[in-house]
Amino acid sequence: ATPTALLVGTGRGARLGILIKGADVLEDTRRIDTVVLDKTGTVTSGEMTLVDVATAGRLPKDQALRAAAAVETGSEHPVARAIVAAATSRAIEAPRATDFASLPGAGARAAIKGTEVTVGRADLFDDVPQELARPTVDGTTVWVGWGGRAHASLTVADTVRRSSQRAVRDLAELGLPAYLLTGDHDQAALTVARDVGIPVGRVIADVRPEDKHAMIADLQKRGKVVAMVGDGVNDAAALAQADLGIAMGTGTDVAADSADIVLLRSELPAVVDAIELSRATLRTIK
Ligand code: ADP
Ligand code: MG
Questions:
Q1: Same domain for 192 and 278?
Q2: Ligand 1: residue whose CA is nearest its atom 12
Q3: Which ligand is nearest to the CA of 251?
Q4: Is 6 helix (H, G, I), strand (E, B) or coil?
Q5: What is the whole-number distance in angstroms between the Cα of residue 193 and the centre of ligand 1?
Q6: Mean pLDDT over residues 171-190, rounded?
Q7: Which of 110, 182, 259, 266 lies 20 to 30 Å from 152 when distance is taken between CA atoms?
Q8: Is 155 in the pocket of ligand 1 (CB under 6 A)?
C-alpha cells in the first residue's frame, strides 16, 4: 500500500472522529471478520440508574442503600455511580467509609464504623439468603452485606444506546458477526443481546476481567480475525489481544492506550465507519 493513500485514509478518519494510531492499522481493520463488543459503556451508555432494592429480614431499604453508597463513594464503576446517585437523590447521607478496596470485575469493599461492608457479585458472599438469591427485576443486580452474608440486593439498569442496534445490523451486512462479551451475569447480558439483535450463541457472559483476553484468544484459535470494542480498564488486555482494538473515547485512558483506534464519537456506528473507511482506502490503493 502506498503511504500517501494510507495517510489520506487516516486523515479522513480523524475528520470522522476516528483516531487511527498509525497507517498500518487500516490494513488490520480490513482483515477482521468478527467483532466482539463489551456490554457496559460500549453497547450500553454505561449510565445506570437504581431500579430496585430488596432486603432480607427487617433491614430497612434506606439503610441498605446508605451502607452501599458509603462503600461505592470510593468506586468509579458505573454500578457504583448509580448507587451513590440514588442515595443522594433520596437525601440519604452516607457515613464515611475507610479502607476502601476495589475488587475489579466483582465489586468493592470498605469499613464503616469498624464493620467491613462488601458490595458486588453474589459470589463475594458465603451466604446469600433464599429471598435475595433470585432477582425479579431486569438489570444488573449486586448484593450488599457484611460478616460473609448478603443482607440486601440492589438492581441497576442501563440503557442500550439507540445507535447500537443499527450498528449490529450494519456489521452483519458487512459480513461481520457481533459477539457480546461481559463480566455481568447471563440474564443482564441476554436482555441487552436481545435488544440489539445479537443471538444467544454469541453471548459470552460472567467473564472475569482477567479472562476477557482469553475469550478473544479462543476466537482467534478458531481462525477468527477479531476486532474488540471496549471502554473499561477491564477491557485493556482484551483490546491488546485482539487483532484490532477499538476504544470508546468516553472510556478510560487505559483502554484508549491499549487500542489501535479510538472513537471520539462514542457510538458503535463509528466502528462501521472505520471498517468502511479502511475498505475504501485500501481499494483505491490496489
Ligand atoms: P462489564 O464487563 O459489563 O463492563 P465489569 O467487568 O466491570 O463489567 O464488572 C462485572 C460485574 O462485577 C458487574 O456487572 C457487577 O456485578 C460487579 N461489579 C464490578 N464493580 C463493582 C462495584 N464497584 N460495585 C458493585 N458491583 C461491581
Ligand atoms: Mg465496559
A1: yes
A2: 106
A3: 2
A4: helix
A5: 18
A6: 94
A7: 182
A8: no
Looking at residue 282, what is its pLDDT? 77
278 and 165 within one domain = yes
CATH number at residue 276: 3.40.50.1000
Which residue minimizes the CA distance to atom 22 of ligand 1?
107
Q: How far is CA 274 from CA 52, 67, 106, in A?
A: 39, 44, 33
Candidate from 36, 73, 77, 210 with most ligand 1 atoms within 8 A of CB, to mutate: 77
Which of 138, 157, 176 lies at the terminal end of a domain, its last residue?
157
- The residue range of the domain holding 34 is 3-45+159-285
pTM: 0.80
Asked if residue 236 and residue 167 are part of one domain, the reply reads yes
The whole-angstrom separation of Cα 52 and Cα 32 is 41
For 33-51, write each residue's pLDDT tens digit: 999 999 988 999 888 999 9
Q: Please give the positions annotated as active site.
A: 38
For residue 92, give the CATH number of its domain. Answer: 3.40.1110.10
